[in-house]
Amino acid sequence: MKEFTIRAYGRMELALLYSPELTDIAAYRKMKKWIQLCPGLLQRLYDLGYQPNCRSYTPLEVRVIIDALGEP
Questions:
Q1: pTM for this prediction
Q2: Exposure string (b/e) for 9-44, b if CB count within 10 Å is 16 or more?
Q3: What value does the mean pLDDT of the chain take?
Q4: Which InterPro entries does the entry link to (predicted)?
């Protein structure tokens, strides 16, 4: 298995790493729901400057996401 690298990821790209069996939009919706349900995660992302309409995550946002959800 390939080691996960912290870098900028497109939102669909990162979501597909978590749910490769789903279509890109279904994987994104699932990951978005996990982010909303994980206590404090969405607020931490907003504190870093996250914008919901942005199509990618910065390396720092990716770090926060995997710290909360685990590596894909």
A1: 0.92
A2: bebbebbbbbbeeeeeeebbeebeebbeeeeebbeb
A3: 96
A4: DUF4248 (IPR025342)
Place of tokens 């995660």: 41
Question: Tens digit of pLDDT for each residue in 31-43?
Answer: 999 999 999 999 9
Is the separation of the CB atoms in 65 and 15 below 8 Å? no
| Bridge partners of residue 61, in order along the sequence | none
How many Å apart are CA 29 and CA 49, to the nearest integer?
Answer: 21
